[in-house]
Amino acid sequence: MKSIKHAIATAVAEHTGFPAADIVNLIEYPPNPELGDLALPCFQFAKQLRKNPALIASELADKLAGIDGIGNANAQGGYLNLTLERSTYALSIVDRALQSVHDLFSEERGTGHTVAVDYSAPNIAKPFGVGHLRSTIIGQAIVRLMREDGYRVEGVNHLGDWGTQFGKNIAAYLKWGDEETVRKNPVRELFKLYVRFHEEAREHPELEDEGRYWFKQLEEGHEQANRLWRWFIDESLRAFQETYKTLGVEFDHYLGESFYNDKMDAIVDELRAKGLLVEDDGAEVVDLSAYDMPPCIIKKSDGTSIYATRDLAAADYRHRVLGADTLVYVVGAEQKLHFQQVFKVLELLGRDYAKRCTHVAFGLMKFNGERLSTRRGHVVYLEDVLNKAIEEAKRIIQEKNPNLADQDGVARSVGVGAVIFNDLKTYRIHEVDFRYEDVLNFDGETGPYVQYTHARACSVLRKAGTDAQPLNWPTQVQPDDVEWALILRLAQAGEALARAVDEFDPSVMARYVLHVCHAFNRFYHNNPILQADDPLRAARLALTQATRNVIAKALYLIGLDAPQEM
RNA sequence: GCGUCCGUAGCUUAGUGGAUAGAGCGCUGGCCUCCGGAGCCAGAGGUCGGGGGUUCGAAUCCCUCCGGACGCGCCA
């Protein structure tokens, strides 16, 4: 699609004197396919050229009719509408989808860049709730999308394994904990203790001091404190790995906050040497009032570190050791100010990568309209959600496809896919009110719908037995309207990837693949494939396989499995 | 109070300067002697939160008001 747009823009630039690069962005898809395949509104040119838009459009139509690949050009109410030569174009798109679907999606725009993506980052000794789902799967999708676009990507899990909360964990465990009970169900028991700590702290605020005391002990290397802390981490990590395995999520590095304990002094010293550190109420801060921001606390008044300090050290580590020139943080929108402060401090430190830091914010996840709060023990366990979805998938399989092999495996792919897709399909900044009735509905714009479409295409190809034969679109076949609509969708894969990457927004890809599926299902419904006669049958089989490749790739990019049967 | 974000059909939402505002869920109706009905087709349902402005053209940009969420120094 890009090359044809380019050819059009070049010709229009010649005629109007406007830069071709700007014209490319003006080209759009007409609201109604009867108008044409591509359109260029000519209103912008009117002022400069001192002609009315309708006249410009019709002059351009004459000019463009001769371009290779353009079947028809006509003017309509200030718009220049263009129709492509269907069979030529069908061959080129289907061929690319069959030979190398990667090339259909990617122009390798990220070549030469390394990006560190920070995602998931669950807290040790706390359950993995649905709230953590968003960062985890948005981040995983961004990793795959950027890799597809040619970036070298380092996925980092910035585990919450340090901070005052562990002082609280330790204090609570020493007060009320019992080794035996914790050992049996570590995350759940530790969490119970943590919640109790906050409940009792409401009546006895001195508990907070006790928590801070134990955190200070931890930072100063107190032996028992460190042993307990290590234990909490081992147990939690084991539980998290299970969840990641179910979700199909992977990381290149597990680098928790504690990893930076010995790397913060360098940053603090540098801040001090550059005169950026000032004392304020006993704490050491970077004053950001010149940028209309509250100060960034670097050291608390009791001398212990804080998350901003760790984020600064982590940023340097990702740049220097991991080689990243671009840093991406997939973290909730409520931390927006924090990241603005950290990025500003990096800039003040003279880090050249500071301008290539992005906070990919997303909206809060609520449950039945209520805010989830780990402190108050209000959590929805992700494990429970996934299990329910998998059960529902299994139930539907038994109802609709009882002879399917590997029902458990497929039910897992479909159930998990439903949960992931439900989260990714909406623009990430919106709040999500998690409701089982939505997640467990497998009709309409859902993961199972996309997977079903993929399985259906696979089924046709299996029956045709053509998997080994080279397929392609025979040029003597003219695509009909339904086939053409599908081909045009496939042709937009590259635009979908580029936009998803530029906006760090997987929902772009999720919506794209929904459009592909709808176009394919329409095609499937209207046009017999296997019973067609040969040039047509070959064409439709090729289109089916091209579509299957595109769907499979898109599903992979947003982190869903693509079962061949379901 | 200040700052940021969000407000589009009953619900979830797409579209962020261009043609009659597009989908899905739910609701109503139609389509399996035919490649998988987790599908396809059609219908009802919209003062694009209100008002003002900029523009040939505004859901989209600016101002203002209303509603909601989040944030605003030692939690992350």
TrEMBL record:
The keyword Aminoacyl-tRNA synthetase belongs to this UniProt entry's keyword annotation: yes
Domain DALR anticodon binding as annotated: residue spans: 450-566
EC numbers for this chain: 6.1.1.19
Pfam families given in the database record: Arg_tRNA_synt_N, DALR_1, tRNA-synt_1d
Arginyl tRNA synthetase N-terminal domain boundaries: 2-84
UniProt keyword DNA-binding present: no
Biological processes annotated in GO: arginyl-tRNA aminoacylation
Ranges spanned by the short sequence motif 'HIGH' region, renumbered to the chain: 122-132
Principal location: cytoplasm
Reaction(s) catalysed (UniProt annotation): tRNA(Arg) + L-arginine + ATP = L-arginyl-tRNA(Arg) + AMP + diphosphate
GO molecular function, one term: ATP binding
GO cellular component: cytoplasm
InterPro entries registered for this protein in UniProt: Arg-tRNA-ligase (IPR001278), Arg-tRNA-synth_N (IPR005148), Arg-tRNA-synth_N_sf (IPR036695), ArgRS_core (IPR035684), DALR_anticod-bd (IPR008909), Rossmann-like_a/b/a_fold (IPR014729), tRNAsynth_Ia_anticodon-bd (IPR009080)
CDD domains found in the cross-reference section: Anticodon_Ia_Arg (cd07956), ArgRS_core (cd00671)
Classification via SMART domains: Arg_tRNA_synt_N, DALR_1
Cell location: Cytoplasm
Coiled-coil regions, chain positions: none
Subunit record text: Monomer.
Family: Belongs to the class-I aminoacyl-tRNA synthetase family.
HAMAP family, sorted: Arg_tRNA_synth
NCBIfam families registered for this protein in UniProt: argS
Protein's recorded name: Arginine--tRNA ligase
Originating organism: Alicyclobacillus hesperidum
